[in-house]
TrEMBL record:
InterPro entries: D-2-hydroxyacid_DH (IPR050857), D-isomer_DH_CS (IPR029753), D-isomer_DH_NAD-bd (IPR006140), NAD(P)-bd_dom_sf (IPR036291). Belongs to the D-isomer specific 2-hydroxyacid dehydrogenase family. This is Hydroxyacid dehydrogenase. It comes from the Bacteria. It comes from Microbacterium paraoxydans. Keywords: NAD, Oxidoreductase. SUPFAM superfamilies: Formate/glycerate dehydrogenase catalytic domain-like, NAD(P)-binding Rossmann-fold domains.
């Protein structure tokens, strides 16, 4: 084994490494880290982990707590090739001074693109028009046409997260009126250049489309409540790519059944919904199978992020997408 490259290990679900890293990316990692002949691991009980310096983790990585860390006394860095590290890293990781990075910013890109696409489609009335045309190809759609269009439509963004901010940046290129609600925004936050900051009630009562980008925390369960949904204008659309429990789903079902609201849901509670659920059957709702995040060739963007972080670590530079212990509690 080479002594000039730190020993490293992939820990993630089977088959994911080749999806995340191209041959070129893998070669770049191999020039910086020594993976030896270790297979990709799905557990952390391999005795060869005793000398490992760097872990590259991904979806399927088991939780890393004090017991696992005791088996890896040489561990100095964990580079996560996905979004949140909340579910698989114990606070003890930070207490032991281990460097942690995430590819959350890279994973935010396709989620924001999905959201932008759905906002524009809903604003143009495409899903409703397509459903009506399918039911009656020769029917009169002129009443629908009177209500569609993306000129000065009000878009409400709930949560100035990484994804929420990227959505706002994408929307700035269109002739839309964008508002954002987040209790933690500072007066000097640059987001104010692209979106009007409003309270929750105003966001829901004045937006034609509300898109949810808040993290799932104890305080955000049911945040999109029956009351807030009731404030939305007739015919408005709720988009959720965050987490299902943030929305009072029973209240949303009632609004959809009443024909008052539309919805685009990439996440639900439970996930997936049982066959025959009203949200799956309603022509006013689009339910997608949690596909907004990185998939297919988008995974290579996560790989690029990890390679860049490993290079920074090798050069002794600060991480670009470091995760601190203080940030852990507020992560999605």
């Amino acid at each position: 084994m080479s002594t000039d490259r730190p020993p490293a290990q992939f820990v993630m679900r089977r088959g994911l490494v080749t999806q995340l890293f191209s041959a070129e990316q893998f070669a770049a990692l191999g020039g910086l880290l020594d993976f030896g002949d270790r297979p990709v691991l799905q557990t952390l009980d391999d005795p060869r982990l005793g000398t490992v310096h760097t872990l590259i983790t991904g979806w399927g990585c088991p939780r890393i707590g004090p017991e696992e860390l005791d088996r890896m006394p040489a561990l100095r860095a964990i580079h996560h090739a996905a979004g949140t590290v909340k579910e698989h890293l114990d606070p003890e990781v930070w207490h032991r001074g281990i460097r942690v990075t995430t590819a959350a910013a890279a994973n935010a890109v396709p989620v924001a693109e999905y959201t932008l696409a759905m906002i524009l489609l809903e604003g143009k009335g495409i899903p409703a028009a397509a459903a009506a045309h399918r039911r009656d190809p020769g029917g009169d759609l002129s009443p629908l046409f009177e209500r569609i269009g993306n000129h000065r439509r009000r878009i409400g963004i709930l949560g100035a997260s990484k994804i929420g901010r990227r959505v706002i940046a994408l929307l700035s290129g269109f002739d839309l009126d964008v508002a954002v609600s987040d209790p933690y925004l500072r007066d000097d936050d640059p987001i104010r250049e692209h979106a009007r900051v409003v309270g929750l009630d105003e966001l829901f009562s004045t937006s034609d489309i509300v898109s949810v980008h808040a993290p799932l925390l104890p305080g955000t369960v049911g945040l999109v409540s029956r009351r807030l949904l009731g404030l939305m204008p007739d015919g408005a659309t709720l988009i959720n790519t965050a987490r299902g429990p943030i929305v009072d789903q029973d209240a949303l079902v009632d609004e959809v059944r009443a024909g008052r609201l539309r919805a685009v849901l990439d996440v639900t509670d439970p996930e997936p919904l049982p066959a025959g659920h009203v949200l799956l059957e309603s022509p006013s709702v689009i339910v997608t199978p949690h596909i907004a995040g990185a998939l297919g060739n988008e995974l290579r963007r996560l790989g690029d992020s990890v390679v860049a972080e490993v290079r920074r670590a090798a050069r002794g530079e600060s991480a670009r997408h470091a995760v601190s212990l203080d940030e852990l509690a507020a992560m999605a």
